[in-house]
Every structure is written in structure tokens, then in C-alpha cells.
Amino acid sequence: MPNVLEVCDLHKSYGQHKAVKGISFSVAADEVFALIGPNGAGKTTTLRMVATILQPDVGSIVLDGSDAVADPATARERISYLPEEAGAYKSMTGLDYLRFMARIRFADRAAQERAVGVARDVSGLDERLGDKLGTYSKGMTRKLMLGRAIMTRPRLAILDEPTSGLDVLNALEVRKTIKQFSREGMSVLLSSHNMLEIEYLSDRVAIMHEGVIHETGTPAELKERYGAANLEEVFAEVVR
Question: Using DSSP, how many helices (H) and how many strands (E) does the chain show?
């Protein structure tokens, strides 16, 4: 089966600063692929380029067979993006926000309601969906945003720190949800600083440092390669 995402020789600079220096990777169908690295490694810039928010200086991004650089509009129909700092309209209720986002994505009323139903289940906010977003905690907002990100069942979900702000129990539920949607056909491009989360969720991991991918493999392969007990030790060895 063809890969859902193919990234080849991607470059991005901000003035004289080279944030991403010719990286290449792929994400297979139904795969959770993690891109990890220290702050300033170029991860978020990479995710934003795949999400068609930023234009690469050089390189190609092929999403589900479509050229995402030349035709970002088509790519956006097949992806969703959850940034690390995602917010919403604080004067809207949670349910109104989900319905608003569903109307943007789908013209068909039945498809809108199905999407909202998925988001309600994923968020787990129940009766709090009737409250305004301005009353939500950071964790509640994050769960709502995750519901919004995957309610369309995209071909590729791009998730930057998906459990940011969540307590342990809610984070566990979110990880189980991501795993479930992946098994049902959604590929995931993930970034997180939580190495336990990465090890639990990811089929493959790429370690990025100073704009370059230095290692790629399954968590088990990386731990064996470095004689490490966990991904934290691998991470430290690679970026040291």
C-alpha cells in the first residue's frame, strides 16, 4: 500500500537561520510516526510545512498521492492539524464550536452531525459542551481541540503535543483514542516531548536535531541500536 505521506529533501530558513536542512521521511497507511527532538530542532516548522501552513524553500511533500506544495487546497481536504497552542472562540459553547468547524469541512448536514458526534465522543466533555469555551480549563480545551482535529477522520492527523495540559488519566484516554483511530485507518504524524507517550503510541520514530533527522526506526530498533532501556536514553545519546 502506498505511503500516506512522502517528504523529500525538505528545507526551510528564516532569514539566515536554517530551521530545516534537507530532511526526508515517510508515513505509511495506518502508521503513527513520531518526530521528536529538543526545542529548536525544527519539528514544529516541519509539521507546519506538512500542514500547508508554511511553504518549504526546497523539497517535496506528497500527501495521499497529491503534491501538497503545488496544490495545498487538495492536501487540506485530507489532513487535520492540532498545533501545540490551539485555541478557539471563547464566546462560543463547545458544541457550537464543533458544529461551526463541521460546517466549514462538510456541506452535507448528515456528515456534519456525524463529525460532531465523533468529536463529542473523543472529547468526553459531555454536558460541559454546553458551556462557553472561556470557562474551560487548558485540559478541557485540549480535549475539545483533539476532538475537532480527528472528527473528520482525516487520512493524516498532524498532532503537536496532543496531551499538553492533560492530567495522567485524561492523557491515557487520549492516547488510547489516537491508537484506536490509527487502527481504523487514520495515519498520524506526531510530536511530543513525553518519551513514554512516544514509545506507547509510535510505530516508528525519527529523532531530529538542529534541522536534521539523525535516526529513524521503531522504538525497539532504536533501543537495541543504542543499548538503551528506553527512548529517553536513546534521545539523550543522539542529541548529546
Answer: 9, 10
